[in-house]
Amino acid sequence: MDPDIEQSTHELLIRLAGRLPDQLLWRFRDWLGEGAMGTLARTLPRSLLKHRIDLDQTEYRLLVAGLIPHGADWHQVSSTLGVDDVTENRYTFTSSAPEWVNSVDSVSVLIHATLRGRPDVGEVRQSWRHVGVVGQGTAKRVLLITALTGLPRLTGELQRVLRVLGDEEPSVEVIPPRFDLPGYHRAALADSELVCVGAVAGTRLVAA
After folding, report:
1. CA-to-CA distance for 52 and 74, rounded, in angstroms?
2. DSSP string computed for the chain
3. pTM of the shown model
4. Whether the Cβ atoms of residue 91 and residue 184 lie closer than 8 Å to each other
């Protein structure tokens, strides 16, 4: 796959976190990790329109660069460009795990074993996402990982790990260094805890 196309599509899917439903976003990331660009090109623009998710100029350019070469419908793509600002983050985050997570968190243990000292991986952090008031409703684990290469494939790998462990709609944010974090990710990073560090110890997420 053309690395520029892959990078554009991965960046767009990062920016759609917290806006697209989790059940769609993880599947789109899985397809990208598998190189199923034709499937993405057919379904992603239609899903954006169905869920009334407008793209800003930067996101629109990423959509065009990533999916038009793979046969995305021009009319659908052009209809995703919005005139309003992107909706602000509607979630709150905490670094502490909810009460239902065991004192020995098997997910964190496995992620630590999988990514500690791994080549091209920097910091691995996690946060817990809440809708509305913290403590009311269901908390969701969000992984925040810096990586230098193979971001879509690492995302797909970790999503599969989390699904095996019971998270049917995993939230895995694999982010390149020196990336301008959207509000969703800045909020998650601000209330997160360190899980482990890969081989690239100096590479970490920084909230602008």
Report:
1. 17
2. --HHHHHHHHHHHHHTTTTS-HHHHHHHHHHHHHT-HHHHHHHHHHHHHHTT--B-HHHHHHHHHHHGGGT--HHHHHTTB-SSPPPPP-EEEESSPPTTS-SS-HHHHHHHHHHTT-TTEEEEEEEEEEESSTTSS--EEEEEEEESS-HHHHHHHHHHHHHHTT-SS-EEEEE-TT----HHHHHHHHT-EEEEE-S-TT------
3. 0.91
4. yes
* Residue (of 100, 118, 102) closest to 174 by Cα position: 118
pLDDT for residue 118: 94
- pLDDT tens readout for residues 132-177: 666 556 889 999 999 999 999 999 999 999 999 999 999 999 999 8
Q: Which residues pair with 144 in a beta bridge?
A: 125, 173
Fold of 91-197: GMP Synthetase; Chain A, domain 3 (3.30.300)
For residues 53 and 40, the answer to whether their CB atoms sit within 8 Å is no
Q: Are 21 and 177 in contact (CB under 8 A)?
A: no
- CB atoms under 10 Å from CB of 39, counted, come to 15
Please list the residue range(s) of the chain that carry CATH number 3.30.300. Answer: 91-197
Provide φ and ψ at 23, rounded to 5°.
-65, -25
Please give the pLDDT value at position 206. 64
Q: How confident is the model at residue 190 (pLDDT cuts 50, 70, 90)?
A: very high
How sure is the predictor about 99, in pLDDT bands with cuts at 50, 70 and 90? confident
